[in-house]
Amino acid sequence: MKAEKEELVNHYKRTGMIKDSLNLESFLNVPREEFLPPKFRNKAYVDRPFPLFSTGQTISAPHMCLLILEYLNLESGFHVLEIGAGSGYQAALIAERLRLAEKPKKIEVSSRVWSIELVPELVRFAQENIKRTDYDDVVAIIKGDGTLGLSEKAPFDRIILTAAGPRIPPPLIEQLKPGGKLCMPLGGERMWQSMILISKDENGKLTQETLASVAFVPLRGKYGV
Ligand code: SAH
User: Fold this and answer.
1) pTM (2 decimals)?
2) Residue 192 preceded by cis peptide, ω within 30
3) Second label for 147, Cα 20 to 30 Å away, from 6, 31, 154, 170?
4) Atom of ligand 1 nearest to the CA of 218
């Protein structure tokens, strides 16, 4: 499995798809097999999404998870909110990247990741996976409707949605720090959707960029599909 993982990293480097070496290092450090249902564990480094039991939800493909890390441009000390914990894999990658950013500065780990999940079975699955892989000092998996955000922990430096919605949930815009960024697949149930990046400047002014065409499961909840 190690060889397959390294082969994927070489491919991402060769194609120039992933430029941040700490993002690639995070991928090498996080065991994707620990976030997959048992029957897919031997395929952990096949670059495709896999179903999460019979929930209708999926763990995204490695290249998509890494592209999300590139879009987020993470720095040490960041507070990150994820909507759609699923397996917990993306949250673990974000946590690992934040840890790597903190290491050279020899500071106490102050970065935090909160990941909200709607499906109770997946809340448990993600919690177990995060604990088993020792990311529970940085990551908290929370049950609820992520379109409402997490006002008690706001504001956030980065917000990522890993499910596709028809519009940006207004509470998430409110809970984004000035200078912060929000990344989400915009569209809804039809393939494809556009991955967009919203930046909030110091005066609260928003700008929007379109990054890529993507295929995500639908965002549910109050501001979902
Ligand atoms: N990031 C995940 C993949 C997520 S798939 C991983 O790394 O494995 C998208 C997830 O979003 C699904 O688990 C789905 O249940 C969840 N979801 C959809 N709408 C939601 C909402 N409003 N609040 C929280 N989770 C939601």
Assistant:
1) 0.98
2) yes
3) 31
4) 18
